[in-house]
Amino acid sequence: MDPSDSTRRPVNGTALALLLLAVLLSGFLLFQSSLFSVGTVMVQGHRYLAEDEILRIAGVGARVNIFRLDTANIQRRLTQDLRIAGADVTRQLPGTIIISVRERQPAAFIATAYGFAQLDGEGMVLAVAKSIRRMNVPIITGHNIGGSYVGERVESPVVLGVLRYLSALSESAFRQLSEIHIESSGQITGYTVDAARIKLGEPEQMAEKASRTSAIFADGKNTMALIEYIDVSYATPYVKFKQERELK
């Protein structure tokens, strides 16, 4: 018999169980602890929606334990709202939740079978109404999307081309646009608030055409009130002034 066997002690099952229980209890208390209750909820990326409205949609209360918070569920709630294109919810220890949202921004109005629809840059119908109360984005004319409802997406290639153009414009250039007209031939022409025409041609390479348009609008020499038309359908844009002055 090994003499060392006499010095060994049998494992105390009760002590082991108590130790395990203590660890589990400590974890549970930590899980429930107010230390990890949300002290700050940071909302980022919003412009049109109020912060209180975003928190209401997310279902985040004033005090929520960040370990018990289901970030995937909050993200799902946010993206189910048609006004929100994307959302990201992250934890920041010890007690902060960061909610980052990407709102769907209105890009244009367009006629429907019953009035008008407001579209975002991806063709999502954000709102419908019998009339336009406030013209805060350009209107697309010459095309009717029929009986479209909120939440549906426009499938017309030419309308989607126009929306790509509008979405790619600089903010200052976008504010100068009042109308985009789609002709029966498929040619597209824009109109500024000063009634200057912007020849866009076919609904192709619309992001590039938006870049050319934005560059012209950014040039301080190009006073929009003096411009007769701008042709950005070619790689080298052309500007024709009302007083017969031309600039290439």
Automatic annotation (TrEMBL):
Residues 36-104 form the POTRA domain. Its main location: membrane. It holds the Pfam family POTRA_1. One of its GO terms (cellular component) is plasma membrane. It is found in: Membrane. One of its GO terms (biological process) is cell division. Keywords: Cell cycle, Cell division, Cell membrane, Membrane, Transmembrane, Transmembrane helix. Signal peptide: none annotated. Gene3D superfamilies: membrane protein fhac. This is POTRA domain-containing protein. It comes from Anaerosporomusa subterranea.
